[in-house]
Structure formats: C-alpha cells, structure tokens
Amino acid sequence: MNTERQIEIKLWNWLSKSMRPFGNVLEIFFNSKNELGCRTFKVRGDLRTIPDLIIKFSNPYNGGINYMAIEVKDAKISKNVRDGLAKLPQEYLFNYIEGKTKYLVDGKEIKINHFAVSTQFSPEGHLYLGELPEINESMRGKTNIAGKTIPVWEFGRTKEGYRNMLSTYSKYRKDKKLSKKQLPSLGILISDNVLNYSRDEAKAIRISGNPLFQGIQFNTNSMRWSQCLMKL
C-alpha cells in the first residue's frame, strides 16, 4: 500500500466518526478500488485529472446534499502540500467550472459543490508537518466573535498556502468575469481544533478534532464571495 493510500484511509477513519448521526458526513468515495470496499467515483470529459476522495454530506447551513472533492497529500514533504494547493484550483476546480471534467458515481453525474486539500495532519487542524499556531493579526483582541468566518488563531504555513490559493481563485473569477456567479467553493479540510482550543493549548495538543472546511464561497444573499467555516 503506497503512502498516499495510507493517508486516504487515515482520513476515511477520521471522517467516518462524523457520519450521521454524529455529524453531517453521509458517504466517502475513493477514486479507485480500495481496501475498505468503499464505493468509487470516476471522471469523464476532455481533461480527466482526478482527485483522491469525494465526501457526500449534508450542508449544515441549508440542509442540502453536497459533494466535496478532496486532493490528498503527504505532508512529510512540504513540496507535496504546495503542489496540492496549486493543483486543486488549476487542474480540478477550473476544469470543472469550464465543463472539461464531469464527476460520476455509479454512472450518474454528481455536482461538486466544494474543492479542498487535505493531509494526514488535517485532523490536528493544519496541513504541514510541525507547524506552530499564531494569532491572526486582523482578529487580535477579538476573543468573542459571533459568526466567525476565520479562526482567531491559525497555523502559519497552512494560512499562507490557503490565502495564496484563494488569491488564485479570485484572479480567475475576475479574469473570466465570474465574480457575481455562484461557483463551487474552494478551501482546505482541517479540524475544529482551531476553534475549540486557545493558541497555547494548541501548541501542546496532538489530538484529532472534528472535520472543518475553511474556504471561500458565494453568498447568494449578499451576492458576494466570502470566507466560511463549515463543520462536516
């Protein structure tokens, strides 16, 4: 079994703990035959690059059934994560938006609502190996914030890579004149450790939190793009 498949299975075990009725996860699909006997998905179209996992879940904001495509990376080599953060929008998201790739389960097309990067350290709340938490300067001193869309503290390298990825998506929407159009959200799959512990506690703990999508999505009420935190 290769390293990436081992990470995929680790993530499956983690995500499975958030299956209904304990969370919002409904099913996890692999991109090929797997040791767990999980169902698989396929891609069709002009470009057939394929992510590693798809999560089917109930969106906690509107109760709708959503699908999230996951690019899994081995974070023991930092370059893998950087490559994943670049590859996710360029090879998966943009091709999907432009109709060059379609996703199917049991021969039936599914709609991908979200695209995210994940690693073996996602359950701890970050993507890279050996990261330390830091305060978000824009949130400094704001310890009681209703409806947070970014954590008060984050892991530095994950934050930097995530922000760069969002900038790539922002430029794409601007260049293609899609800023007012509802498109799939883009982000990272981490855990709610970034919400449940203080920064000092986070330096010491190495436990798995619950799955959390941190990303940017289109708000149909305001007709604007905004950051979001969504528990799976």
Structural description of this entry:
By secondary structure, the protein is an alpha+beta fold. It has one domain (3-231). Helices cover 28% and strands 30% of the residues. The protein has 5 helices and 12 strands. The strands form 3 sheets. The chain has a 7-stranded mixed β-sheet, sandwiched between helices. It has a 3-stranded antiparallel β-sheet with strand order 2-5-6. The chain has a two-stranded antiparallel ribbon with strand order 8-9. The relative contact order is 0.15. Mean pLDDT is 91; it is low at 139-147.
Q: What's the order of the H and E elements?
A: HEEEEHEEEEEHEHHEE
Q: Note the beta-strand portion.
A: 25-35%
Note the gap between the termini. 28 Å
Share of helical residues? 25-40%
**Main sheet makeup:** 7 strands, mixed
Low-confidence stretches: 139-147
- Cross-sheet strand order for the largest sheet: 1-3-4-7-10-11-12
What descriptive keywords fit this protein?
single chain; 12 strands; seven-stranded mixed beta sheet; three-stranded antiparallel beta sheet; 232 residues; alpha+beta
Outline the secondary-structure elements.
Layout: H1 3-16, E1 25-30, E2 42-45, E3 53-58, E4 65-73, H2 78-97, E5 101-105, E6 108-110, E7 114-119, E8 133-135, E9 153-155, H3 156-175, E10 185-191, H4 193-196, H5 199-204, E11 211-219, E12 224-231
Parallel strand pairs: 4-7, 7-10
Antiparallel strand pairs: 1-3, 2-5, 3-4, 5-6, 8-9, 10-11, 11-12
Summarize the structure.
This protein is of the alpha+beta class and 232 residues long. 28% of the residues lie in helices and 30% in strands. It has one domain (3-231).
